[in-house]
Specification:
82 residues
């Protein structure tokens, strides 16, 4: 079994190398444009996600500060009985 798995890995690697090298070496300018556009989009999405993560962290921090000043549940019960 292990020999078949190794052979599959080797064949997969060779096919991958041949395919990538043939596409990268001016055989397909359309593929190169696609790769550049896709890379740029992925970078843009990554940057947007990082920005949204930062914004959300700031909102959560502000939200927690808002609730720090509120009375606790025990204090609320005492206020209602007074």
């Amino acid at each position: 079994m292990a020999g078949g798995n190794f052979l599959h890995r080797v064949m997969s690697y060779v096919v991958n190398e041949v395919l990538v090298n043939s596409l990268a070496n001016s055989v397909s300018p359309a593929f190169q444009r696609f790769a550049v556009r896709t890379s740029k989009r992925m970078q843009d999405i990554s940057n947007m996600a990082a920005q949204k993560k930062q914004e959300l962290a700031e909102q959560v921090k502000e939200f927690s500060k808002t609730f720090e000043g509120l009375p606790k549940s025990k204090e609320l019960g005492a206020i209602g009985r007074a």
